[in-house]
Amino acid sequence: MAGLSYAGVRKDYGEIQALRGLDLEVADGEFLALVGPSGSGKSTALRLAAGLEEVTAGTVHIGSRDVTRLTPAARNVSMVFQSYALFPHLTVSENIGFGLRARGVRRQDAARAVEEAARLTGCDALLDRKPHELSGGERQRVALARALARHPDVYLLDEPLSNLDAQLRVDTRAELKRLHRSLGTTMVYVTHDQVEALTLGTRVAVIDGGVLQQVGSPEEIYARPANRFVARFVGSPSMNLLPATLEGDALRAGPFRFEPSALGIAARRLEIGVRAEHLEVARDGDGVPATVEVVETAGSETLVYVLASDTSLVARVSPELDLEVGALVRLSVASRNLYAFDAETGATLAGLRR
Amino acid sequence: MRDRDTRQLTLMLAPYLLGIGVLIALPAAVTFALALTEYDLIRSPRFVGLGNFRELWDDEVFRISLRNSLMFIAFAVPLRLLGALALALLLHRRFRGVGASRTAAYLPSVVPDVAYALLWLWIFNPLYGPLNLLLDALGGPTPRWMTDPRAAQWAIIVMSLFVIGEGFLVALATRQSLPAELYEIAALESARPWYVFGRVTLPLMAPTLLLLLFRDTIFSFQATFVPALIVTEGGPPPYATTYLPVFAYQNAFEYLRYGYAAAATLVMFAVTALIVYVQYRIVRRWRHAFVV
Fold first, then answer.
1. pTM
2. Residue A99: closest CA among chain B residues belongs to which residue?
3. CATH code of the domain made up of B52-289
4. Which value does ipTM take for this structure?
5. Cβ of A130 and B292 within 8 Å?
6. Smallest Cβ distance to A99: which of B189, B192, B292?
7. Domain coordinates of chain B in residue numbers?
8. pLDDT at residue A263, rounded to an integer
9. Rounded to the nearest 5°, which phi and psi values hold at B251?
10. Where does a domain end: A225, A260, A291?
11. pLDDT tens, residue by residue, A223-277
């Protein structure tokens, strides 16, 4: 068991810079979710840790070992791919035991480890089957069992749930979390799904354009995003963004007016962010008038897309409000629930960071 | 199916059906018929029933050429398959000059048979041919390729080992279609190259390799024809490189015994079918080991 750390890791593919100096510490036993849009460099980071790609610059440590120049085999890590990468011609038990047999572990010992791993992942009933006889969820378990069988220092999971259907993904997510708790081994989990990242990770690292944007607990990432990208990327629906200008004594952000002093920021080019759940929607009152354009019902909550003087906004409201398309509503937002970003750099302005 | 569809289908298939009919079905039927006759192009064919086959049975030269053909297949087919596989595994990765290397591997297959054979005639020349000069320089044996029966048979096999372009391409495409992630898993699980080859690559390529095996077996019966005709002229005595196609050719075009040659061709066809069938039966036994 060991942690994983990147120090100044860069990876170039010709002209393309996939990672631009990654510094990231994954503590021993931690479940780190590495999340970002496609092409952000998250999978590259994982593959560099596995040794499947070579770093252009920087070092990778597993525990106290510098593994930067080591072969994948020498790093003692296990990987689970999105495609599962099961050997189609081998049975489930041969798949799980592949690494053990390749390392020359004796047949009986390997068989015992295979059974143990299969039991932990709940695929002990599948051992004699071939991958093509399994469902997607079962294949995913087998891939996980194969990673487990060898007791690696670090598990590297590359979008392992992305090929599962929605219900199964939620179930497997919970199981994976349980598994991590019982194993206590370091796991790095790459995903493009921010919900998955927030629910699974003990810490979440957000990456974009080959640059680490923020690392923190799921709560921190959500409540105190370091910049506009993180604020928009994390949370569903995306945070509302309003270009803001200073007009006399008032800060004008889309249809809203605020006292700049209430925000504690100096006047400059900035953008104001409002999360959907912070946008209050009422049938009447003295808020900003708006028209309901789209209503999305999702059981316990309703998403309402409204138009307020040319600005489109989304709000999360209680289903009891029972709004219909075309209804006139009033919008308001408490200034303590605002986020402010530098319009140029996207950085969260210190005055508003909570 | 509607009439219009049928008409359209027939029209589209017509060129192909015409080709099969005129170039394959008709000659095959003629060969069948001819095998039961005696025919020398001058007198009209005379029906002799199974006489030609009875004669083949007793013909020493036919027996030798059948044996030669079978021996050729026994050595050339596995070696050719191995060569194609080895080249494919060697050249499937990207590296500097891989394109040129792949072209070089395929190139001999592009050379016309006759030109290829003439080239080897020079290479095999025992006095000034580059092969023996090289073997001599390395201190190896310098066989008299054209006059020693064993050496001549090997010469024909060696010639066939360089025209494996199609097999190479098919094997290459198959290897490249195997998911890279399987090999990444193997690398992470510290599987050694031979283990990966035996446990991953070979079983996953097996269906294609078997297809190549069948195809090459069929092809190899005929592959001996041009080299044996040009390089070794069916010799050296006694009939060391007289293979079935050469036997049929000589009987037809040199001795003008078309009926007899047709009968020999039919036997060749039957033997090919038999071998492929036996291979198929053997393969079926252990197909569960790799069929995905």
1. 0.82
2. B189
3. 1.10.3720.10
4. 0.84
5. yes
6. B189
7. 52-289
8. 61
9. -65, -40
10. A225
11. 999 999 999 999 889 999 998 887 777 778 888 887 766 566 655 678 889 999 9
